[in-house]
Design goal:
single chain, 95 residues, mainly alpha
Length: 95
Amino acid sequence: MLTRMNGKTDPAEADPAEAKTAKAKTAKGGPGKGQEEAAESRRDFVNLLAVIVCLVILILGFWLMNRLWEAKKLQDCVFSGRRNCGTSIDVTHAQ
């Protein structure tokens, strides 16, 4: 059996009996078809995982930008000389 530089065998250059067996397996949908389906399934999974990771990064980026905007507003309030910048008003009265 002869091998090419990439490590795969060429049925045309191999033993004629092995070439017929290899052609019969791929013609009947043997190992070649199952491997293609498995590779396609892996690609689909990896693509879905990449989309999920991108969405998580976008959501975290949006959250971080909002937190930075709130911190900037608080800092602007403090630098303008106000004293009640970070406090919230409590409406409940203690009796």
